Amino acid sequence: MAAIILDGKTVAQRILDDLRAQVNTLALKPGLAVIRVGQDPASVVYVNLKEKRCKDVGLYSEKYELPETITQVELIALIRRLNTSEKIHGILVQLPLPSHLNEKEVIEAIAPEKDVDGFHPLTVGRMAIGYGKLWPCTPLGIITLLREYKVELAGRHAVIVGASNIVGKPTAAMLLNAGATITICTSKTRDLAAITRQADILVVAVGKPGLITGSMVKDGVVVVDVGVTRVGERLLGDVAFDEVQKKAAAITPVPGGVGPMTVALLLQNTVTAYRLQSEKGRS
Questions:
Q1: Is 277 a catalytic residue?
Q2: For the chain, what is the mean pLDDT?
């Protein structure tokens, strides 16, 4: 039987359609501020896509395209101004930042109630214990996509390849909260294939095209490929799709899998942040 394609593009569009219906009922539109520093090509594409999706849904958006020479003090001053803006309910700083900027300090400068990207330590801490309303966008997109296709999480062995703060670690925490048994693999993991072959659910997020081959998975595995690397004119994932789909029960494509979900969940987080701030203002 051919693998089910976990179509993130279609699921994301349903989420965006629902958000548009919600936003149309609001007198004040939820606002998202996106900050980009420098001219990293991938960041330019991602920020422009997020701006377009905001318009599609009806969100208010502000885009800040800052020179690579901006100082730490100047960047944090902008974030603090946005923290107090009544028009802005979510703040996103596009990563990576230029090397002279302290990423940790920048993330911590964002007000937790406006942390729609889900990177603030308070957001991460709440997520780790299964508490809170805002969640990291890509991990939330992964969980949402799996649940949309009714993939059972509780009691399954989930193997995550990649231990980044953006994807690997928070995805592991969210799957653990859902009742899965978790194994995390890093660049230091010995005999990676022996571990990935144990996975009922395999999440791969390292940015190495074709890292996971057909011989590294078992029959019936559910595969979520988060990696996206441009090679010439093609976008390639971390999973050798043609090989692995022959053994998988379900698999995400690249592109069209996790990527659209990340953007949709960012906008969902923005609407959630708006509602939470509105409720706090009325209390």
A1: no
A2: 95
